[in-house]
Amino acid sequence: MILSNAMMGCSKISVILFIMCFECLMCKRCPNQTIQISGEKNLNITYFENAFSGMERGLQKIRLEDNGWTVVPAFIFSSSTLINTLEIHLGRNSFSNFSLKGITSLKNLTLLDMSENKLITFIISMIVDIETLILHKNDIVRLPSFCVKNSNASYVPRLKSLNLGDNALSNIDNNMFRCLPSLEILQLNENRLSVLLPSTFDVMPQLRKLLIEKNRFIKICREAFKSISLQSLHIGSNYFHFNNLERFDPDDIFRHTPKLGYLDLTNSYLPSNYSILHKMFGPLSNLTELNLHSCHLRWIPPKVFQSLRSLKRLTLQGNSLTSWNNKLFEKMTNLRYLNLEGNYISLINESSFPDGMLNRLETLDLSNNHFACTCDLMWFRDWIRNKNPNLPELKNFPQRYVCIYPEKMHRILLKDYNPTKESCTPWNPLFTIAITLASFTVLCLVLILTAYKCHSNIRNYCYLFRLNTLKRKGYIRLNSSEDYEYHAFVVYCDADRKWVHNIFLPKLENEGFKLCIHFRDFDVGVSKTENVDTYLKKCWKIIVIMSNEFAKSEWCQWELEFSQDRRRRQGRNAFLPIMLKTINSKHMISPIRTLLKTTPYVTHQTGVGEDLFWKAVIEGIQKPLGNPPVAV
């Protein structure tokens, strides 16, 4: 039966209440009778009391909330109507103090709700059999003793659940929670606790669940969570810095909770340090659920979870993870739920999870990540399409699986990403290496063959290039051909006479050059050595026509050696060696080898390179003496 301020005037409450309850009692259709009167700020307490006194059978649940009361009406706990009542809810009123003494007569009462009042403290002076006491959202600054005076007996021996959340507690220690032999659930959320002292909760032998969130701790002492019975620990949203070793001992913090099966560290600061995390989680061999939601993790060291062999549920939602080592989930064979929602994961591939892990999972959440829809993600896309439709359940798929990169795929659903295997076939880097080496090899072969076939032309090009370079630099000429009777003295062997007389002389003399050759210009009756000495002085330059026969001729060798003095006095430009025929190595005498190494020479060519040959010869004769040395 529910009466509220939206129903009727207070003057009619007693009549209606009596009639409804009477009908209920007579027809026996209401085994679990409940009365709720909420939001009645102008309720006439007298009418309400008269209605209670007229009921012969007690109510099992009564809710008298948000009525603006500052004092609990005395008749509520003394009326025989409530003798069998199981629950009393007096929340959202304005009580400033309260004593449990009034409920001692209610032997069947199991739950008392005094939440959202203005209680600063509450008084316990007699033993009561209540099991659940709800005191959250008050202004409680201290707790009364739960121990009977001068003994270890408890005022609340059957109390199993105590809710002290959202109060003003700033300090707690183990003395506050003594004499609570049956307490299983303790809620201390949203208080003002800053330090957790040693063995604070160890005095409660049946404590199974501890909620101590949103307190902003600055220090957790050693053995603070010590409890041989604790199975569920909620210490999230305290923004505790587990990366500051001055505030806690990672080796001790969970070492004394051997039965801990659930741990919630939501909104904490966890380091990406293997040593610290391993020490924290190492003792938790019985842990089945771990919540690391929004713990500011950028990276999780590999093997940090390997001691958690019993873990079934792992939440890593809301961190800054981009990837992880493939050994992170190794040996976690009991894991059935994995939540990686809301990180910065861009790539999931075959090595992201150990073999068989995805087949063992029942639920996997990878939604709201920053997926890069490139060919690297093709394995994950194929896995989604081909996996068992029921195992694992892919939470929030497909709506929250969205491509972020590249730009052209931005906001496209992952299920609509359809690359082909051909377009995603990776290019083998060995192919690139092979092509590069093959190209380099071919290029080297071409260069070698070109140099072998055209070495003479190359030398001539080099000779002309350097010759023109020297001309452009404008070096001062020491002397010129005008100072001599002949442009050049020609040294050649008799075996090459035909080419010299029929081709070489006519070609150059037609170009205007005057050449000195011994069969035509030497004086009759004078020795050869004297003629050579005389006519060398009349010639501006010396042209040496070289071949195998030239190298074998002793006379030619003498002429070459004799003319070396000119080269030493006037520089190498006084000589113009012409290689008419290649000299075999066995005929290569030392003077010729020295000449070829120190003086640019022109190689005779026929066919394609012939014009270039004659051009090099002509420019070699015209080149002034005294220029800096030129090497080909």
Unreliable stretches (pLDDT < 50, length at least 5) are 4-31, 627-632
Separation, N- and C-terminal Cα atoms: 118 Å
Average the pLDDT over all residues and give the rounded result.
Answer: 85
What share of the residues lie within helices?
Answer: 25-40%
Which structural category do the helix and sheet elements fall into?
A: alpha/beta
Query: What sort of overall outline do the alpha carbons produce when their principal axes are compared?
Result: rod-shaped
* Strand coverage percent: 5-15%
Largest sheet, order of strands side by side? 1-2-3-4-5-6-7-8-10-12-13-14-15-16-17-19
Number of strands: 25
Helix count, DSSP H or I runs of 4 or more residues: 15
Gyration radius (Cα, Å) is 54 Å
Give the biggest sheet: 16 strands, parallel
Keywords: Glycoprotein, Leucine-rich repeat, Membrane, Receptor, Repeat, Signal, Transmembrane, Transmembrane helix
Subcellular location: Membrane
GO molecular function: signaling receptor activity
Membrane topology: Single-pass type I membrane protein
Description:
The protein is of the alpha/beta class and 632 residues long. Helices cover 26% and strands 13% of the residues. It is built from 15 helices and 25 strands. Strands 1-2-3-4-5-6-7-8-10-12-13-14-15-16-17-19 form a 16-stranded parallel beta sheet, with no helix packed on it. It is rod-shaped and about 170 Å long. It is found in: Membrane.
